[in-house]
Write a sequence for this structure.
């Protein structure tokens, strides 16, 4: 993987941060993209201090111009991008009848349109190389449903369908497209939901029903992402791997 350059959106915290560190450990140069400069800079610095190559870039993935500018910076600093991890996302807990149009659009723009922008921006590099790996982050809630999260789960369900369609379209170009679907992984976003008591029941009751009755770690999701990004996954595309403690709902 030493010749590969990866771009990870939402790379400043949680699963994104763990993925940046894991891909760097596997030998990739990493573009750490996020909205908060202090977070992305810290992750990129951790990689460079460990002997790797990384650059922090700031962008709101819902803004096409910002995404394209960030991709250009990564390309100029590290080289053509052939691995893309579409991890950036936001969630919101609101009963369906109370979701405003503004809130609906914002979740759609970040979670779904952001993937569209980032993927279009890096595809020329992958096509030119005849090799590419795209890994999208969906969510268990897209399969099981989740109360008070209709707009969030709708984006993740759309992303699952987008993953399959892109896999069909891009496979002949040497580009694979797969998805990782985390269950209850303890990220800063999940911690905010716990602290805000936003789940219908205490989270301990949720994970107690899993065959592996605990919360997941960001590093465990990152390991699945790193596999899909690897040479070993070259004949795997259009697939979704659940990292969810065995919750099969």
């Amino acid at each position: 993987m030493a010749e590969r350059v990866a771009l990870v959106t939402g790379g400043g915290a949680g699963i994104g941060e763990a993925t940046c560190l894991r891909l760097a450990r596997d030998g990739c140069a990493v573009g750490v993209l996020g909205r908060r400069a202090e977070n992305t800079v810290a992750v990129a610095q951790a990689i460079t201090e460990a002997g790797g190559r990384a650059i922090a870039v700031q962008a709101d993935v819902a803004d096409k111009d910002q995404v394209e500018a960030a991709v250009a910076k990564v390309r100029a600093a590290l080289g053509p991008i052939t691995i893309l991890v579409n991890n950036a996302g936001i969630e919101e807990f609101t009963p369906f009848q109370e979701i405003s149009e503004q809130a609906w659009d914002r979740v759609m723009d970040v979670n779904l349109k952001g993937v569209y922008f980032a993927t279009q921006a890096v595809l020329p590099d992958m096509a030119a190389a005849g090799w590419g790996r795209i890994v999208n982050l969906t969510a268990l809630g897209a399969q099981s449903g989740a109360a008070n999260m209709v707009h969030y789960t709708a984006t993740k369900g759309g992303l699952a369908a987008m993953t399959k369609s892109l896999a069909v379209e891009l496979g002949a170009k040497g580009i694979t497209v797969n998805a990782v679907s985390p269950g209850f992984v303890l990220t800063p976003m999940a911690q905010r939901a716990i602290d805000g008591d936003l789940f219908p029941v205490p989270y301990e009751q949720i994970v107690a029903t899993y065959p592996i009755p605990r919360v997941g770690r960001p590093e465990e999701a990152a390991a699945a992402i790193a596999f899909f990004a690897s040479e070993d996954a070259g004949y795997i595309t259009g697939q979704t791997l659940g990292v969810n403690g065995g919750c099969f709902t």
